[in-house]
Amino acid sequence: MKSKQLTGDELLAALSALSNPHRLRVVAALAAGGRNYVSQLARELNISRPLLHLHLQKLEEAGLVTSQMELSNDGKALNYFDAAPFAIDLTPATIAEAVRTLTTNPEK
Predict the structure, then answer these.
(1) For the whole model, what pTM was predicted?
(2) Per-residue pLDDT tens digits for 83-103
(3) d(CA 70, CA 64)
C-alpha cells in the first residue's frame, strides 16, 4: 500500500494514538484476527470494556480503526471494529512537510 502524505495534525493524531501499548495491541489484534466486537476484543486483550472503548475511540479519531454497529441474531447491538488500512512514511522529509501544515501550536 502506498502511504498518503499526512497533514501535520493527522500525523500528530496517528503518532499520539499509537504511543500507547494498549492501543498497539488493539491494532495488532485487529490486523491479525480481523474485525471484532468490543466485548470479544476486551476478553482477548484482557482489559475492561470501558478502557478498551476509550482506546478504540482514540484510534478511530486518528483514522487507524473503523467501526460499524450491527445487530446480532438475538437483537443485541454489537459495535464491530476493524483496522483501517494505513501506512505512515516517517522520515525527516515527511516530518518537515507535515510541520508546514500544522494548525496546533505547541505550548510555550
Answers:
(1) 0.85
(2) 999 999 899 999 999 999 999
(3) 20
